[in-house]
Amino acid sequence: MYSIMNKKVAIGMSGGVDSSVAALLLKEQGYDVIGVTMEIWDGEVDNLQVKKSGCYGPDEIEDIETAKKVADKLEIPLEIIDLKQEYQKHIINYFKQEYQLGRTPNPCVKCNHELKFGLLFEKAKELFQFDYFATGHYIRLNYDDQIKEYVFKEAIDKTKDQSYFLYRLTQNILPFLKFPLGELKKDEVKNISKKLGLKLEEKKESQDFATLGKESLLKGISQQGNIINENGEILGKHKGIQYYTIGQRKGLNISHSSPLYVLKIDPDTCNIILGSEKKLYNQKLIAGNINWINTNIPSTNISAKIRYKHQKCAVELSSIDENKVTVTFFSPQLAITPGQSIVFYENEKLLGGGIIDKVL
Question: Model's pTM, two decimal places?
Answer without folding.
Answer: 0.94
